[in-house]
Amino acid sequence: MEEIILPREFMRRILSHGRSAYPDEACGILAGEENVVKVMYEATNLESSPVSYMLDPGEQFRIMKEIRDRGMRMVAIYHSHPLAPPYPSQKDINLVFYHDAAYIIAGLLDRADPQVKAFEIIDGQVREIGIKELD
Ligand SMILES: [Zn+2]
């Protein structure tokens, strides 16, 4: 995946989810077709932590089923970094399970100027990919 196509509405919602979970990390799933995001699911961070997240497995299972039922695929998993730059932590890298999904991180360290970045993480290798916002 070279870039993700993300409607601005979802960009706003990722940031507002991150702000509402602050100082804990927020997480969720973005689904759609190919690299185009069409649906966003806010999820529960089981760890309630400012430095890590864990999707609730039962909730994730229900979301994944709904995505399949809609004929879509999981395009990305997003989470926020309330206290760190928007770059995958070693734990984020270790926990990567889906190689065909992108990982989006919303960096809220500078809350007045949040930064959202997307990455492909394969076999421990992190590569930034583009985010193209759609109106
Ligand atoms: Zn992280």
From TrEMBL:
Gene3D superfamilies: Cytidine Deaminase, domain 2 (3.40.140.10). The keyword Hydrolase applies. It comes from the Bacteria. Residues 4-125 form the MPN domain. Keywords: Hydrolase, Metal-binding, Metalloprotease, Protease, Zinc. GO terms for molecular function: metalloexopeptidase activity; zinc ion binding. GO terms for biological process: proteolysis. This is Mov34/MPN/PAD-1 family.
